[in-house]
Amino acid sequence: MPLPHAAPWLHAVPLEGYAHDLHAALRQRPRSISPKYFYDDAGSALFERICELPEYYPTRTELALLRSHAAEMAALMGEAVQLIEYGAGALRKVRLLLDALSAPHSFVPVDISGPHLLAACRALQAEHASLAIQPVVADFTRPHDLPARPQRGQRVGFFPGSSIGNFSPDQALEFLRMAAQELRGGALLIGVDLVKDPAVLHAAYNDAQGVTAAFNLNVLARAQRELGAELDPAGFAHSAFYNAPLQRIEMHLQSRGRQQIRLDQRVYEFEDGETLHTEHSHKFSVAGFQTLAARAGFKAGPVWQDAREWFALLWLQAPAA
Ligand code: AVI
Q1: CA-wise closest residue to 231 among 273, 209, 264
Q2: Which one in 97, 174, 193, 210 has a CA-CA gap of 20 to 30 Å to 291?
Q3: Is the full-model pTM beyond 0.90?
Q4: Which domains are delineated in the chain?
């Protein structure tokens, strides 16, 4: 069964891809690998636990915003909306919107992991018998086909979780440009994590129970399990810190001393303190994100934020059809 918060846009990467990308990551300086490699089943289960941690506020804050404002969001979507969810996962958040919608045309979850997506759709269909659910198994960051637009209602995209924060700025703009075209005549509802006190951010990525550390180290554990890499995960430390000028949390795995990783007969040397970068999690201001979205063709609309202004859901109007 899918995990309630299941990892966004990121599962089911073929093994050859992982081996190839890990070699490339270990060869280059500075060393860096895509965060998509966090999310095998073990990593997805750890992410699920992260979402419940007292220090990790984004999931519960966004859920609370959706609970409080779903009716206003549904009113903006109007009747006969075709709702597209990017990186759909387990469909927990979108249920709050679907419950509030009046006679939606259809719901189109897009996710790269077919088995997880289809299981989640079956569970949703059991609760919403009359809803037309049209899952699309695809990497939504690449060109993909969608079912035809509704004749009457608009097409609205939903991209929660601040997953856009894990993209590089170029990737974020590229995704927003793609979405602006795909959603022409409609809108995008997107969740973004906001810039805040660095101590709050630091705690969210350095939790007391060490779950985020285990999530980060799972990249190495996976390399051992799946690729037969010879390495000592205990030889690496979780490192997560806020880079204020670049408004992002950076996660790295830092070598505790000199050591080697062996992969497919190749040996990669790590000096003491040397790092493998694993993730950026960008934080935004509302105005900054609206400016980025405007470069992709979106017009700023309503914004919903919690009282502490830690997280925001933004309505962005796509260009006319
Ligand atoms: C999935 N993504 C939005 C999470 C984040 O906060 O950037 C991934 C995560 N990394 C460490 N903790 C959570």
Answers
A1: 264
A2: 97
A3: yes
A4: 54-196+283-317 (3.40.50.150)
